[in-house]
Amino acid sequence: MDGAYKKKRSSSGNTATTTQGDMKMFQKLKKAAGVAAAILATTTMISTAQADAYPQKAITLVVPYGAGGASDLAGRALAETARHYTDEQPIVVVNKTGNGGMNGARFVTEQKPDGYTLLLSRVGMALYPAVYEDSPVAWDDYTFLGILESTPMILAVNANSDVQTVDDLIAKIKDSDGATTYAASGPTAIDGFSVQALLSDLDLDPLTASTLVPYKGGSALAAALLGGHVDFLAIAAGSLMPHIEAGKMRPLMVYSPKRMAALPDVPTAKELGYAQAGQVGGWSGLYAPKGLPEDVVAKWTEVLGNVATDEQWLDLAAKRGSTSVIGDDDPSAYVKSQFELYNGMAKKFGYIQ
Amino acid sequence: MWNELLFAFQSVATLPNFLAMFAGIWGGVIIGAIPGMTGTMAVTLALPFTFYLPPVTSLLLLVALYKGSTYGGSISAILIKTPGTASAACTVLDGYPLARAGKGGKALNMALISSCIGDFISNISLFFLAMPLAMFALRVGPPEFFMLMAFSLTIVASISGRSLVLGIIAACLGLLLATVGEDIYGSYRFALSEDMKSGLGMVPVLIGLFALPELIKMIVFRPEDNSQAMKLGDNRLTLSEFRGSIKSICRGSVIGVILGAIPGIGPSTAAFFSYSEARRTSKNGDKFGEGELEGIAASESANNGACGATMIPLLALGVPGDVITGVMLGAFMIHGLTPGPLLFQNNLGEVYSLFIGMLFSSLFLFIAGKLTAGAFTKISRIPQTLLLPCILILCVYGIYSIGASPFDVTVLLVMGIVGFAMMLLNIPAAPFLIAFILGPMFEDNMRRSLAISRGDLGVFFQSWISWGFFILTILFVTLTIRREWKKWRDRRASAQSAS
Predict the structure, then answer these.
(1) How far apart, in Å, do the first and last CA atoms of chain A sit?
(2) Is residue A169 part of a domain?
(3) A48 touching B (Cβ < 8 Å)
(4) What is the mean pLDDT of residues B461-487?
(5) Rounded to 5 degrees, what angle do the CA atoms A73, A75, A77 make?
(6) Of A114, B145, B268, B280, which has the highest C-beta tally within 10 A?
(7) What is the average pLDDT score of chain B?
(8) What percent of chain A has pLDDT over 70?
(9) A73, A188, A213 ranked by CB distance to B451: nearest
(10) Residues of chain B contacting residue A69, judged by C-beta atoms under 8 Å apart
(11) Which residues does the UniProt record annotate as the domain DUF112 (chain B) (predicted)?
């Protein structure tokens, strides 16, 4: 302690002995920096932070799913946009995959809560603990910084299918005695719950009324429907929109609070009166390890406030088929309600007692 | 069309595009050649840079990295018995014996030429056959995929070395190890720790199995001649040697293109498949595994052939087949391009520019490969006592850098000990590794097929693709049994006549 103090004093002594020319130079630079900062502040309307404030170095954003997927694109879009508001400190995206996203989530919760390791969270971070009681991370083991976007999901069939509406599909499911197939990442993944919630709303057994065929990742799921290897699926819009636009798939219903701008004629689950399916949907959030200091939380509230109105962010979100929802809900209340929703479903479907 | 092509040619033939491609290929070759560093890593690391480049330049950079690293894997496979990437696992079998015999340069030249030819053929197919191949790939559902994997597993018979029984044992162990972690339904197997829940990484297993046993052997047995460097003999590839392998190169390229176009298969399986086919049909088939140039040609032409072909489902359908094309899909989206049928309508200019750019990649690959392989050949002059510890350090750092995970390093070390034990027991490592790579695809597609049919085995015999692979599998297994039976009879007859 003492030594450190001495060191500090001697180093400040060194600066005192700098020549006057240096001082002048320094002041000039300071002035120039001040002018530059002022220009920056007036043109982009950002308040410049103090030199010693967070962030001082690059921030790592952990994406718990594979590169190129919907969550990865969301993470990279956030990193690209938020960089302009973090005093030009870059945000580095790292993919830590495995175990339904819980590997990356666990990694982040084990890091120091200093704001330099953050998690791009997905609905899975609430869904997994809702289904598995021995989840490595609980739904509230984080500091919630914000909910970023809601990603609608689409119930779709192959364009060659004779199914035209949701009612057609329901009739087909009922007739087939469990032989219809749907593709999903797994029974307890969000794209499995989307179908099971619909089946449960119809008073069918969510686990046996239709057969789940598991695939890994959004593009593999889409390919399964495209190749006609399964009858239907209900997965994230981002993985399906290109195929719907190309006329290879037929959208039947949207899992989203509002109709999608790109699909104005496709009804939402809520409109069709499906109580549970109407609440299912994907989202991304920004989490940090528990116990994040107040000033870091405040900084991110400010950064996300700026991101929310950033053209680039909104543009990238639209391209993914997502809607930005930054600031719409209190994050911890929202995540809690999501946890309870899926916990209730997991009990009803029989995954937990 | 010709107008658009000409226009695309003008727009792609710029210095930045060529620079990006050459840098990508050369960087890829070096990264691929370093054990533990993979093409996936190279592409993921390059992705942020592409945000600031024009779309065509950035895609060419990513493609170039992928191609370079797929070839680069063969350099370390030949020189230090460690496949830099999984797709070079079969290259080790013939490449390393050649290097030991002082023909490392010859082997490297063969690998380079077959890679370039494979790459060129796959680029041409991408240009002309993208749509038909993509439509074919879509028809490959879980049952067809399963049959294809069953056939691919018969390659074990080709790479078992002296004893088929030991090869089968190795393959079974590999299949068993592949079951560690989460299965497709979300249940856990052999998940002894939190890290094991997501399974064992392919790269740590690969490197541990191939690179570490040599090192452990040296520590345990302290051979007398360990300071001796490998001889450097004739390095030139003669025309007659090339002519002898041309059939395998062409066949390998076609196998690579067809398998590469099917999402989820990738260069490794194509290389194994092609190696096995070459061994079965070549007149030098019996010499495979002892240092046969044709083996290298078959394996290397197929993995680079598959490389360009993985772009087919990505561009034509918007379906990436593996992690690397997944990252490329992300790069497309960031630039506002949506791969799929609409890409050919809305962004034909970009598509043609990309295709034309890729045609140059074969040439760049040749130049970059020549330069790098030449420099790396000097590795074989370093005494083993110095070389192997350096390899160990590279491996540990490389593996750690993939996911910053100490668990991966543990897997590496444990697999090294397992590999050493297998070496002592004469159990071949290649069948183990190949079963480990193919295992998940084999199992997942079997379970998917049976889920679709609700347990009815008839699902495996519903299309001509499945039937085709089924018949091939049966044929191959029968031939292998007959060969083994003959060998056994001959051995018994000679034993009797001796007594």
Answers:
(1) 56
(2) yes
(3) no
(4) 91
(5) 65
(6) B268
(7) 87
(8) 85
(9) A213
(10) 326, 330
(11) 19-433
How close, in Å, is residue B301 to chain A by CA atoms? 27
pLDDT band at A97; cut points 50, 70, 90: confident
- Range of A268's domain? 153-279
Reported as a single tens digit per residue, the pLDDT across A51-94 is 468 888 889 999 998 766 778 888 988 988 898 898 878 888 88
- Of the candidates B3, B1, B4, B14, the one whose C-alpha atom is nearest the C-alpha of residue B360 is B14
Which of the two residues, A97 and A46, has the higher pLDDT score?
A97
B201 touches chain A (CB under 8 A): no
Both A111 and A168 in one domain: the answer is: no
- Between CA A163 and CA A145 the distance in angstroms is 42
Using the 3D structure, point to which of A223, A257, A279 is the last residue of a domain: A279
Q: What is the pLDDT of residue B225?
A: 60
Indicate whether A114 and A74 sit together in one domain: yes
Tokens of B59: 């895609």
The answer on A300 and A267 residing in a single domain is no
Residue A140 shares a structural domain with residue A288: yes
Looking at the complex, does the CB of residue A89 fall below 8 Å from at least one CB of chain B?
no
- Look at residue B425 in the predicted model and tell me its pLDDT: 93
How many distinct structural domains can be found in chain A?
2
Outline where DSSP puts E strands in B143-302: 181-182, 188-189
Q: Please indicate if any CB of chain B lies within 8 Å of the CB of A176.
A: no
Asked whether residue A250 falls in the same domain as residue A328, the answer is no
Same domain, A141 and A287: yes
Asked whether the beta carbons of residue B186 and residue A100 sit closer than 8 angstroms, the reply is yes
More confident residue, A258 or B365: B365
| Phi, psi at A97, each rounded to 5° | -100, 175
In a domain, A25, yes or no: no
Q: What is the predicted pLDDT for the residue at B414?
A: 95
Considering only CB atoms, B330 lies closest to which of A76, A212, A243, namely A76
Looking up residue A331, the CATH number of its domain turns out to be 3.40.190.150
Query: In angstroms, rounded to a whole number, what is the distance separating the alpha carbons of residues B242 and B337?
Result: 42
Is A60 touching B (CB cutoff 8 A)? Answer: no
Q: Supply the mean pLDDT for chain A.
A: 84
Question: Is A37 within the bounds of a domain?
Answer: no
Residues A125 and A168 occupy one common structural domain: no
Lowest pLDDT segment from A136-145, B119-128, B206-215, B293-302: B206-215
- Across chain A, the runs of DSSP E, i.e. the strands, are 59-63, 91-95, 117-122, 142-151, 153-158, 181-184, 211-214, 232-236, 249-255, 282-289, 323-324
CB contact under 8 A, A213 and B403: no
Crossing angle for the helix pair A294-308 and A70-82, nearest 10 degrees?
A: 100
How far apart CA A155 and CA A278 sit, in angstroms, is 12
Q: How far apart are CA A74 and CA A60, in angstroms?
A: 15
> What's the CA gap between B25 and B39, in Å, rounded?
11
Q: What is the structure's pLDDT at B442?
A: 94
- Residue type for position A81: T
For residue A209, the domain's CATH number is: 3.40.190.10
Nearest Cα neighbor of B246 from B117, B364, B99, B155 is B117
Would you say A193 and A342 are in contact if contact means Cβ atoms under 8 Å apart? yes
Percent of chain B with pLDDT strictly greater than 70: 97
One domain for residues A157 and A272: yes
The three-point CA angle B293-B299-B305 to 5° equals 125
Among B14-18, B122-126, B338-342, name the one with the lowest average pLDDT.
B338-342
Does any domain span residue A16? no
Partner-chain residue, chosen from B313, B333, B340, that has the shortest CB–CB distance to A246: B340
Which residue, of A279, A297, A319, is where some domain finishes? A279
